[in-house]
């Protein structure tokens, strides 16, 4: 951990002041030297992902199909272990095909970073504009690196499929067949797709003539898979009333009992400061966090991330959850954005409070300016949080990476960013909720009914 103790630039300011800041020169120089050395580094093999629970027979059956080369679509409600399952499948695919021939993607930068992959648009090299299949194919053919990726791929993983449109899914299948010179569906690529179509939908800027919206409406959808599985066992929640209510909201089929539970969770009273607020819009999140920081009146420490890699890949770093600039102070509410030690409850989504800033012992450090946050976690120990490396892969090659403290401010977070997280307590303001699935994503984050607090909710917010 010698480098981690000085791999990040810390800037010290008074709370939200306009004073000139002072940068730790030692931290900056060490960071730059390390980045230079690692520019062409290929990562070492990582340990196989292992969950804290036993695999079910249903999950083992999926593994067996994957090992035999089957293309599989995995769905299921929130909390059914889709992410853990997908990570293990990725390990299997890399053993079967070799790391360099397995490409891990997701529809969003946040989901892609969580899997150490890249966005689907980035892998395909199609850009983000809406266009027909022929136009997108021409764009890919003009990029020799993109053509090489498409030809090299033996397996393609796509997470958060609910945000991929039918038109895009069809276009990518068409591109795969053309580039690979094969009439077999997806050009013979083994496909592993995961997601819940009852959660966040595709963002479609203009109505398509086809009238299709979701990927499962694509003409090639059923032909793309040898096996389609819905996971049914919920691990996140144990209360049968909460599970029933969430399943009803997921499908837009709530009854009087479900609505009563929701009404009991509504409160106009101010909740405990430890409760995380979930908002549909990022502007509300930023406003709440900034106001709470100012109210503390403490001196702040700003951590500037250290980035490197290919220029066109570094852009994805800002699409993920890892902040470029992290401003903290004593008393700040924070959330972990990666798993540090699951057995000690130091996992993605764990919340806590900054108790101080202390130096990390490092015999190479020449001064005491390099301080890191000490955090007392709500369901875990008090711990000094060091910078961690967040990587973006293309196959088995690291194409971009960021060193940053693995925390975000957590008085409030957006519903989009909390997708995939588990929270002990959440206050959700749904008065400005928009889009299908948003209510379900927000409510399904909590472990128990006791941890669910609602405001701005009406039954009309539940949409099918």
UniProtKB/TrEMBL annotation:
Superkingdom per UniProt: Eukaryota
Gene3D superfamilies on file: P-loop containing nucleotide triphosphate hydrolases
Reaction equations catalysed: ATP + H2O = ADP + phosphate + H(+)
One Pfam family named in its UniProt record: PIF1
One annotated GO biological process: DNA repair
Cofactor(s) listed in the protein's UniProt record: Mg(2+)
Keywords from the UniProt entry: ATP-binding, DNA damage, DNA recombination, DNA repair, DNA-binding, Helicase, Hydrolase, Isomerase, Nucleotide-binding
GO molecular function: 5'-3' DNA helicase activity; ATP binding; hydrolase activity
DNA helicase Pif1-like DEAD-box helicase domain segment(s): 56-255
UniProt xrefs under SUPFAM superfamilies: P-loop containing nucleoside triphosphate hydrolases
Keyword Hydrolase annotated: yes
InterPro entries: DNA_helicase_pif1-like_DEAD, P-loop_NTPase, Pif1-like_2B_dom, PIF1_helicase
Documented EC number(s): 5.6.2.3
Domain DNA helicase Pif1-like 2B: 319-357
Family, per entry: Belongs to the helicase family.
PANTHER family, A to Z: ATP-DEPENDENT DNA HELICASE (PTHR47642)
Listed name of the protein: ATP-dependent DNA helicase
Organism in which the protein naturally occurs: Populus euphratica
Gene that this polypeptide is encoded by: LOC105115714
